[in-house]
Amino acid sequence: MYFEDYENAKSQERNSDDVYSKPVRAGKRTYFFDVKATKGNDYYLTITESKRKVEQDGKFVYDKHKIFLYKEDFEKFSEGLQEVINYIKERCPVTEARPYNDGYQRSEESGKPAGPGYSDVDFDEL
Predict the structure, then answer these.
(1) With the CA atoms of 82, 83, 89 and 90 taken in that order, what torsion angle do they form, in degrees rounded to the nearest 10?
(2) Which of these, 28, 25, 19, lies nearest to 46 by C-alpha position?
(3) Rounded CA gap, 16 and 33, in Å?
């Protein structure tokens, strides 16, 4: 998770409706799963996707998208999400590349750099 995302989430004044928060860093995005309470003390979930962008002046801004999920919809939402995830996994095996500190991306299977302009050559084999 971006440090700024986490700090901004912590530094915002917590309202009485905030119950629990779980930030999840996933590549260039951070997802926030926030449990909130209504005035009647009924819980609901907000899911926020936050993506850090650099503006032309070099300052960082965060592009955020949020959905609200109410407890009466948890089961249907969960079933639909799992069905779609299974569909994708069956048809397209997960081969995500993640950025590393050196700026290169590596295949999760091999840990070697991946992406445009990179080949999977092992120089020990030459």
Answers:
(1) 150
(2) 19
(3) 17
Which residues touch 117 (CB under 8 Å, ≥6 apart)?
none
Over the chain (126 residues), the average pLDDT of each successive run of 10 is 52 64 93 95 95 89 94 97 95 71 52 54 49
Burial code (b: 16+ CB inside 10 Å, e: under 16) for 69-105 equals eeeeeeeeeeeeeeeeeeeeeeeeeeeebeeeeeeeb
Residue type, 86: N
Give the residues across from 33 on adjacent strands: 22, 47
- Please tell me the pTM assigned to this model: 0.59
Domains of the chain: 3-117 (3.10.450.700)
For residue 11, give the amino acid letter. Answer: S
Structure tokens at 100: 């590393």
